[in-house]
Amino acid sequence: MMQMVQQGNYPEPTTDKQAVSQECEDLSLEDQQLFECESNDNLLSTVTNHYEGLMDGTSSPEVICASSVLDNIAEKFEQKKLSLSHLRTGSLWLHYMDMIDSLRLLIKAEHTGNWDLHLSTVNEMLPFYASAGHNLYLKSAYTYLQQMLQLEEKHPEVHAAFKNGNHVIRRSDRFWAGLSTDLIIEQVLMRSVKATGGLTRGRGLTEAEWARWILSMPACADMNNAIQEFCGTR
């Protein structure tokens, strides 16, 4: 200390102006944090009111979707994602959340019969196929996407049908009841083939047995539909 005094290396004293400036910055930060807390509380209260109104029927989904509260939530969410994107662990979790979002959108597109959402989601999943090393999935999905994007020009009637939600199969009139064709094949056709009384259970695999089973399926389907309509389960 004596050496610092002898050499003239004095610590600069804090002036009143600097102290006041630092205190103002601290107060400004506290006010900003307090404002953010109040804003979040108001936002949470608004969301709670919307949810309660939707549950008791006093509010409609159209009114809630038109509200700005959803945009505010999305904006805050994007700001939080941006603040975490420079961290390694945060970046990893954000990429994982993007994968889950793409999967959720694909399921939504299938169940609701949304053709445009289906194509956009398949396009979003291409980088994940490549990064995971699923080259065959990547090749097939890329070729499929190219062909479907040209569908409006080459086959406009098929494109119009797909736009109306006919690229999925519905076994009921519910909004969330759309199923992909390969899933329907597994649930209906393959199930009928492998179940008791099916083609591969207790029957000979001769051509006569195959023909008899295949030709009897339309009649069995009509009888099944009639029984379901009679019982009110269709």
UniProtKB/TrEMBL annotation:
Organism per entry? Holothuria leucospilota
Region: Disordered, residue numbers:
1-21
Query: Which protein is depicted?
Result: Uncharacterized protein
